[in-house]
Amino acid sequence: MSRVFSMIQPSGRLGIGHYLGAIRHWEVLQAQEHDCLFAIANLHAITVPQATAELKQHSLDLVAFYLACGIDPEQTTIFMQSDVKHHAELAWILSCITSLGELNRMTQFKDKSQNTKRERIGAGLLFYPALMAADILLYQTNLVPVGSDQKQHIEMTRDLAIRFNQTFGETFVVPEPYIADTGSRIMALGDPMKKMSKSDQDSNNYIALEDSGRLIQKKIMRAVTDSLNSFCYNPEQQKGLANLIDLYAACSHEDVESIVARYSGGGYGQFKKDLAQMVSGRVEEIYANYERYRRDTAYLKEVLAQGAINANGIADQTLAVVHERVGLLL
Ligand code: AQP
Asked: Which residues bind L-tryptophan (predicted)?
């Protein structure tokens, strides 16, 4: 049985990208009876400014969405990152064996800091990958199911685990990324050059799991394609269409070739209509479950309390070994 760990930031409204890139794989791994831990990454969320009340709301929303997507607290540990203090402590220890050069090379850091003056960029944003490495290594994780944007961070986590083990003695399991072939990078509907993100200022760029069927239909019908009017999968020249085909493939579990074979020869309109219907069907199903769970705040807090007990139990053991290895104990 492998240990599986992943998390999502409560930094906005959850979108179809998070579901297809991450959560639906969590459910599959849970069904395969792996030992799964899925967290709410609230310490990561504050690497960029968050409004206090919204952060609290989004954190509970996310728990309800995990449950709505089929993550079962009877089988899986669901917890709030800040409820396990060891994340911050291990992040500090790992940051001491991380170079500034490595941190500066991270593309997520470059993307998120590019429009901010250097003196105003929070150090937490730069140290994000050290915290992420701590999150994963604390639980002796074997597999990390994520979207492809997180690949570089997982590689750095592996490097840090290997470096720590070589310096201080065998301590951490070196984790493997689990990145699916389809749906691991859903792009913005209005700008297929950038990833679909929950913090996008333009809500037409993403499909939120809270969007109504009508709104989803409107967004997909307006999604950027091209004027070639040739239905084929060509991510180089027809990025917008390729993104919608990826979305279709991930939602339907169908391969790209058979989707292209079905729609080739026709325009994009019917394809977009069918895609909208499929996406809205899945989103509405999740949202109906979500509403049911979200009404019961006491239950959500109970799930988190139990999750914190389980997670702290594992984290205690790892951190005790880390202290011993580094020499933080007398
Ligand atoms: N567009 C996407 N396609 C596929 N997978 C995605 N993920 C995020 N966006 C897509 C995956 O979802 C998991 C959780 O992501 P996160 O919220 O912790 O961080 P993020 O990747 O930075 O997501 P956002 O929406 O872009 O957040 P903001 O806007 O707050 O920065 C990860 O596994 C991620 O790969």
From this structure: 135
Q: How many domains does the chain have?
A: 2
Question: Whole-number mean pLDDT of the chain?
Answer: 95
In ligand 1, which atom is closest to the CA atom of 196?
1
Amino acid 328: pLDDT? 96
85 counts as catalytic: no
Cβ of 9 less than 6 Å from ligand 1 = yes
What crossing angle do the helices spanning 86-95 and 297-326 adopt, rounded to 10°? 40
Listed in sequence order, the DSSP H helices in 52-150 are 52-68, 86-95, 100-104, 107-113, 123-138
**Contact (Cβ atoms closer than 8 angstroms) between residue 189 and residue 223:** yes
Residue 270's domain comprises 203-291
pLDDT of residue 111: 87
Residue 1 annotated as part of some ligand binding site: no
Element containing residue 178 per DSSP (H, E): strand 176-178
Q: Is 218 a catalytic residue?
A: no
Tell me how far apart the alpha carbons of residues 178 and 148 are, in angstroms, rounded to a whole number: 9
Q: Is there a domain that residue 318 lies in?
A: yes
Helix (H) or strand (E) holding 301: helix 297-326
User: Is residue 198 annotated as a catalytic residue, yes or no?
Assistant: yes
> Are 149 and 41 in the same domain?
yes
Amino acid symbol at 276:
A
